[in-house]
Specification:
Layout lengths: L9 H17 L19 H10 L6 E3 L6 H11 L12 E5 L4 H6 L13 E5 L2 E10 L8 E6 L8
Parallel strand pairs: 1-2, 2-3
Antiparallel strand pairs: 4-5
Organism: Klebsiella variicola
Protein name: PhnH protein
């Protein structure tokens, strides 16, 4: 087994990462930086690796798209978080994909229910960049009026 680095200061780095993730998830379209790691567990980038180190545990099954799944990622995810890897996206609490996720895969992800939204899957889409791409207008919960982001769909595993 080849273990890759996790957070250097496990508690402090996880707390910092959690606060940044909470901001991003509560204010869609707000871009935050996760810089506690030098490198992600390839092909996961730094942001995806940080997110999983912060949020995944033994009670949160993780599904990885085939382009992001390898033995190195699986071994490190299990060692550092205890999170089980699942083969089917509908079994996951967290699903991690690149920009090539298919409509079929998206359609099987649980959206939760009106009375139990927490049962929905959290989908993490790993992108090459949040600038220089096609503009997207975001509206809805957590957004006062609208926010614009530009996402680049060139998957690059070494970017944040």
């Amino acid at each position: 087994m080849t273990l890759q680095p996790a957070f250097t200061l496990a508690v402090q780095d996880a707390q910092h990462s959690f606060r940044r993730l909470l901001k991003a998830m509560s204010e869609p379209g707000v871009i935050v930086s996760l810089q506690q790691l030098q490198h992600g567990w390839q092909p996961l980038n730094v942001a995806s690796t940080s997110l999983l180190l912060t949020l995944a545990d033994h009670e949160t099954p993780v599904w990885l798209a085939s382009a992001l799944h390898n033995d190195l990622v699986g071994q490190n995810l299990r060692f550092h978080t205890g999170a089980p890897l699942v083969d089917q996206p509908q079994q996951a609490v967290f699903a991690v994909a690149n920009d090539g996720i298919s409509a079929e895969q998206l359609n099987v992800l649980s959206a939760g229910t009106v009375t139990a939204p927490e049962t929905g899957v959290t989908l993490i889409v790993q992108l090459a960049s949040l600038s220089g791409g096609r503009m997207l207008r975001l509206t809805g919960a957590g957004i006062a009026e609208e926010r614009m982001i530009a996402r680049s769909c060139r998957t690059a595993s070494s970017t944040n």
